[in-house]
C-alpha cells in the first residue's frame, strides 16, 4: 500500500490465504484471489507497512513510479534530495535518542497487516481499462484502482517510504552488481531481475535477446533526482491541503470546487506544522529514550553489584558455616574429653574397690590360716586361751564379709549411662535460614526487616461445631517474634484479634453457629508488623452439637451425676441443681430436646436457658439470670426471676420429650412438650449469650439430644 494519488487516498494491501517469500530484504505476499467468474488469479504484492495515520501522498508518473518501486525493492540505490535540508527542525540525529534505526545496507521491513484484502479486491467492472481483471476500492475515498499488467504499480506510491529508502541508499554510490573486482558505476537497472549492470556487464550478462529482450531496463536514479508530488487527476503540482478531507489538492481541484466550503491552506504550511509537531514529540520521546538508556546502564551496574554482593555473601555464609562446623568440632572434642574423663574416673573407682576387696581377702585368708593352725593345737589350755577370741573374730569377720563383700556391688556401671541431646541442635540446623534485612544505604546499620506474610495451610484448617482451627507456615527468610491471628465477626464485619503468640496453629471456640468466618494472620518482630496472609473462610456448623458441661455445672461438688458421654444427667439430693450445656448462643435459631428417662410425681424439673453466672443451687428461673418452664405431671408454668405465670395444662411422664426453641433472630424462647407447643412464646427480648440449662432434683433423669433442626412455629 502507499499514499493515495489523485484524491490523496491510501490503499492497504494485506495477505490473503497465501504465503510470503523473502527476496533479499523485501517481503512479497502471494495471494490467490477468485474472480466473479470463478477463475482464480495470483498476484504478487509487495507489502510495505503504511503509517497508521494514513498520511496523504501522491502518485508519480508511470516511469517515476516504476523506477521508485524498483529502487525500493533492491534496497541499494541512493538519492540525495534538497528536501533533506529543507526543514532541519524536523531532523533528529541518532545520538539524540541513542536508538539506531537500521544499518546502511538494510531496508525497512514490510509489514503484512490484517486480512481485509478479500473484502476490497473485486472482479473488474465493466468500465475497467483493457487488461484489468481486478480492482481495489480505497476505504477512505472509495476511489477505484484497477489492476492491469502493471499489477501493484497501479497503486498509489508510498512516497514517504521511498524517500526514506532513498536517503539510506544514498550512502553508497550505485555500483554494478556483476563486476567481480572493482565494481564500476551502474548504468542500467533491470526492473525484472532487480540487478544493476555497467555497460560491459550488461552486454555480457543481460543481452537484449531471447527472453531477456522483454525485460524493462531503466537508468538508476541518481542522488540528485528530484521528485515532486503531482495530482493524479490534473497532473498539476499539489500545492494546497484540505484540512477537512485531510488530503492534498492542486489549484485545479480547488478551482473545480472539489472541496467546497472546506478549510484549505498551503501544503508547505501544513507540512511544516506537522513536522514541527512530530519534532516536538520526537524530542520528548528522545528524552525518554535517553533516560531509559541511562536506566539500562544503571541496571547493568546493579547487575554487576548484585554479582559482587552475592559473591561476598557467599563468602560470608561459607565463613559462618565453617565457624559453625568448627564450633561443632570443638564441642565434639569437649564431649569426647568428658567421656574419657568419665572413663578414667570409673576405672579409678573400680581399681580402688578392687584394692579394698583384695586387702579384705588377704586379711580373711590370714585369719583362716591362723585358725586352722590353732585347731591343730593339742594343748587344751593353750587353745582355750585364744579360742574365745578367735570365735568372736571369725564371727565378726563373717558378718562384715557378708556386708562388705557378699552384698557389695560395683561402685560404677560399666555401661555409659549418658546420651547426647542433639534434638534441639538438629532442629536449629533444620531451621537455619536467611533472615530478611531492611534495605539501607551504605554505611548504615543493617537491621532485620519486618517479617513477610505467613502462609495459611488450608489442609490443616477446619471448623467443627462453633469452633475453627487455623494453621499457618512461618514466612520464609524472616525473623519472627510472634503472630497475631484475627477473625471477623462471621458476617463480613471488622476483624478483631483472637490470638497473639508464637504458635503456628490456633483453635478459637465460642463462635456463632451457621456463620462464615474469615481469618488472617500476620507476623511481627522488633522491626514491626508484617503483611497479612491471604484470607481463609471457615463455616461453622449449621446446627449446634453439644452436651452437658460438668465444669460449667459446678464441678465435682455440684451433686450432679453425668453419664452417657455427658448427655444424661441425674442428681441424688432433694435440692434443685442447675446443669448447663457446653456451648453458649448469641445469634441464630437453635433447638434441642430432653427425653425424660425417669420421673416421679413429687418433683417438677425446669427447662430453659441461663447466663453463665446463673445461681446453680436454685431452681432454674428463680434468679434474673435464667428463663425457664417448670413442669409436673399435669401442668407447667413459665418462670423468670422467681416470677411464674401463664399456667398451661399438660404435664410429663417417663418417656416424655421436652423441646426448647431459642430464636435469637426474633429474640424469643418457646417450649414444646411431646412435639406440641406448650403455650405461646414464653419469653421475648432475649439479648446476650445464653446457655442451654435444666434444673432437677432427686427422682428425675434426663437425656439431652442436640444437632436438631428447629421446628417451624406458626405464631410469633
UniProtKB/TrEMBL annotation:
Composition bias, Polar residues: 19-32
MF annotations from Gene Ontology: zinc ion binding
One Pfam family hit: zf-B_box
GO biological process: axon guidance
Alphabetically ordered keywords of this record: Coiled coil, Metal-binding, Repeat, Zinc, Zinc-finger
Ranges for region Disordered: 1-86
Top-level taxonomic group: Eukaryota
Domain B30.2/SPRY stretches: 525-713
GO cellular component: neuron projection
Domain B box-type: residue ranges: 171-220, 226-267
Domain COS: 375-435
CDD domains: Bbox1_TRIM9-like_C-I, Bbox2_TRIM9-like, FN3, SPRY_PRY_TRIM67_9
Designated name of the protein: E3 ubiquitin-protein ligase TRIM9
Species assigned in the record: Ceratitis capitata
Gene responsible for this protein: TRIM9
